[in-house]
Amino acid sequence: MANYFVHESSYVDEGAEIGEGTKIWHFCHILGKAKIGKNCSFGQNVLVANNVIIGDNCKIQNNVSLYEGVILEDYVFCGPSMVFTNVKTPRCEFPRNTSNDYLKTLVKRGSSIGANATIVCGVTLHEYAFVAAGAVVTKDVPSYAMVAGVPAKIIGWMSAYGDVLKFDADGYAVDSTDAKYQKISDTEVIRVS
Questions:
Q1: CB burial readout 100-111, b (16+ within 10 A) else e
Q2: What digits encode the pLDDT tens for the residues 69-114?
Q3: Is 63 left (phi over 0), alpha (psi -120 to 50) or beta?
Q4: End-to-end CA distance of the chain
Q5: Is the alpha carbon torsion for 184, 118, 149, 62 positive or negative?
Q6: For 101-150, what is each residue's pLDDT tens digit?
Q7: Contact 146, 130 (CB under 8 A)
Q8: Closest CA to 43 of 57, 58, 28, 53
């Protein structure tokens, strides 16, 4: 007996690896070569394609498709109807539909992607990146960066806990959990404690 939950309206193809405590809700489809970690939650109408890797404790909201080439590390949040792509130059007449055609998209630990955002393939969202609702991400997002707009640009910085960081004159900020961060440059923030 499985140690995870799958709603009766969903399909999990033979061979899929699903971690303990994961919950797969209505109308989802998990393909046979997908790997899903522990304690994940999949909302309604989620597709997880072959060779997708999902870490532990991820939350995938309604209407999200994770196509081949997508890798989510632990504690990633994917908001409702956000979009991943996996082919840079799609053409129906000249299909690009093999594993070799798909570009890797890496979403690192603790990152959050807002509703209706689009992540163009081939980018990395670094640790605890925060993508605003409706943003279109076309290049890598640094750790702790908040990005918004089309194309997405850095609009600020957020702690791992989720507090907007306000840096002092020396380039330091402390969040509500007393974690300390340092702004190294306009494109780099590090956690220092």
A1: eebeebbbbbbb
A2: 999 999 999 999 999 999 999 999 999 999 999 999 999 999 999 9
A3: left
A4: 43
A5: negative
A6: 999 999 999 999 999 999 999 999 999 999 999 999 999 999 999 999 99
A7: yes
A8: 28
Instruction: Count CB atoms within 10 A of the CB of residue 180.
Output: 13
User: What is the number of alpha carbons within 13 Å of residue 169 lying toward its C-beta?
Assistant: 0
Burial 132-159 (b: 16+ CB within 10 A, else e): bebbbbeeebbbbbbbbeeebebeebbb
Residue type, 140: D
- The dihedral through the CA atoms of 170, 163, 126, 81 has a sign that is negative
From CA 64, how far away is CA 37, in angstroms rounded?
A: 17
Q: What is the pTM of this model?
A: 0.97
Place of tokens 């002092």: 168
